[in-house]
């Protein structure tokens, strides 16, 4: 794996590790306000340090997007969210990763982006999900492993 010394995603998993293989990993975001307010907030992270999607050869781009699609599919099937947000920004952490976030009309920032100011307080967001987070993590790991 190619790493970059100053990159937090090269140095750390980036959240609760759900799945990892030789080329990518899936984590559930934890430890910040957005992940507390949006508990089904996942990231698909390319292990090697690359900044842009087009830094990857086409076969790897396909692998990455197939993984994003599998995570989205599990979220849609298991949680029935109002919407799933997909984003690949990398402005703060220039390491290739995709956000896959289940959104609900009851969540703290709906209908605004997860990075916007809160619209309301939702102290029990994780308990509102149709599945416990550990079970959701297991279903995502199983789906991603199935190539």
How many helices does DSSP assign?
4
Indicate the proportion of strand residues.
15-25%
Proportion in helices: 25-40%
CATH class label: Alpha Beta
CATH topology: HIT family, subunit A
Output the strand order for the largest sheet: 1-2-3-5-4
Major pleated sheet: 5 strands, antiparallel
Report low-confidence residues grouped into runs of 5 or more. none
The overall pLDDT, averaged over residues, is 93
Q: What is the terminal separation in angstroms?
A: 21 Å
Shape: globular
The SSE order reads: HEEHEHEEH
Rounded to the nearest angstrom, the radius of gyration is: 15 Å
CATH superfamily: HIT-like
- In the CATH hierarchy, what is the architecture at level 2? 2-Layer Sandwich
Instruction: Label the structural class.
Output: alpha+beta
Number of domains: 1
Total strands: 5
Describe the protein in words.
By secondary structure, the protein is an alpha+beta fold. The chain has a single domain (8-145), classed as HIT-like (HIT family, subunit A), CATH 3.30.428. It has helices at 8-11, 33-37, 58-79, 133-145, and strands at 16-20, 24-28, 41-46, 83-87, 97-103. A hairpin with a 3-residue loop joins strand 1 and strand 2. It is globular.
């Amino acid at each position: 794996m190619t790493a970059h010394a100053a990159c937090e995603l090269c140095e750390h998993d980036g959240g609760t590790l759900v799945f990892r293989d030789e080329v990518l990993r899936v984590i559930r975001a934890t430890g910040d306000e957005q992940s507390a307010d949006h508990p089904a907030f996942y990231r698909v992270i390319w292990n090697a340090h690359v900044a842009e999607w087009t830094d990857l050869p086409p076969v790897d781009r396909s692998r990455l997007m197939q993984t994003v699609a599998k995570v989205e599919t599990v979220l849609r099937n298991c949680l029935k969210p109002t919407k799933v947000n997909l984003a690949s920004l990398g402005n703060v952490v220039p390491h290739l990763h995709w956000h896959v976030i289940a959104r609900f009309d009851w969540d703290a920032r709906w209908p605004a982006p997860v990075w916007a100011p809160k619209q309301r307080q939702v102290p029990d967001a994780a308990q509102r999900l149709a599945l416990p987070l550990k079970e959701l993590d297991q279903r995502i790991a199983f789906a991603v492993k199935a190539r």
